[in-house]
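> forwarded from #structure-qc
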């Protein structure tokens, strides 16, 4: 089943978008700590690589989509842009993010906005760089979301996406399968009130298109120079693309 068709709560009458917002609201309080445990802390290293790529574009206006609790937005503040906007569908995650930003005394530089990545409240050609870390697989309509990103990205801008992918080589392929289908849901159940959330996250991680398949989806939706760079044996991939 494609990631777009997988919903967090199997018996809910809500659409995927609303379910994803509800899920992240529920787990927002312990999401950061759990994230470090689940990724064994490597996700910080991956985000640093994203920041390195964004730096090359010398961006003044940055948009971080599915910003969550603002980890990546905070890291990009070191690039001294004029403005960083963190957009997310979950108010709960943004609240946690706002507290982190206030503690870092960056509330005047990073703006947190509740919004839908498929209908963003920004003008065409606004941003020099747009980032999405572990967010595109939660889009209810991937094509629509990517077209919307292309709309608000400047012609000279860069899109950088960090997303889960599946290792293809032995033994990492087999190890990762075991890790996502057994370890991840168990950790989720131990640490989180929301058992369904971590089952959903591991299910979508296993079914989301990656590598050249995802490059082709980017090309289909208005992007060129789509490239993929697998990290840590291919458990995640960094994609870069231009309009």
């Amino acid at each position: 089943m494609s990631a777009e068709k997988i919903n967090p709560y199997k018996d809910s009458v809500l659409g995927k978008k609303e379910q994803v917002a509800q899920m992240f609201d529920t787990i927002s309080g312990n999401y950061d700590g759990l994230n470090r445990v689940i990724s064994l802390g490597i996700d910080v290293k991956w985000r640093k690589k994203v920041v390195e790529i964004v730096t090359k574009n010398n961006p003044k206006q940055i948009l971080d989509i599915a910003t969550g609790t603002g980890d990546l937005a905070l890291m990009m503040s070191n690039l001294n842009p004029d403005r960083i906007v963190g957009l997310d569908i979950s108010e709960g995650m943004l609240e946690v993010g706002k507290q982190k930003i206030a503690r870092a005394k960056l509330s005047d530089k990073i703006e947190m906005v509740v919004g839908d990545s498929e209908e963003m409240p920004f003008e065409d050609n606004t941003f020099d760089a747009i980032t999405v870390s572990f967010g595109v697989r939660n889009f209810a309509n991937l094509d629509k979301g990517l077209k919307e990103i292309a709309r608000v990205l400047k012609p000279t801008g860069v899109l950088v996406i960090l997303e889960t992918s599946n290792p293809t080589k032995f033994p990492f392929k087999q190890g990762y399968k075991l890790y996502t289908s057994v370890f991840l849901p168990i950790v989720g159940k131990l640490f989180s009130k929301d058992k369904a959330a971590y089952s959903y996250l591991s299910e979508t991680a296993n079914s989301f298109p990656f590598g050249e398949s995802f490059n082709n989806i980017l090309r289909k939706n208005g992007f060129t120079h789509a490239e993929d760079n697998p990290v840590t044996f291919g458990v995640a991939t960094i994609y870069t693309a231009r309009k």
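QC bot note: The first helix runs from residue 16 to 27. The mean pLDDT is 93.
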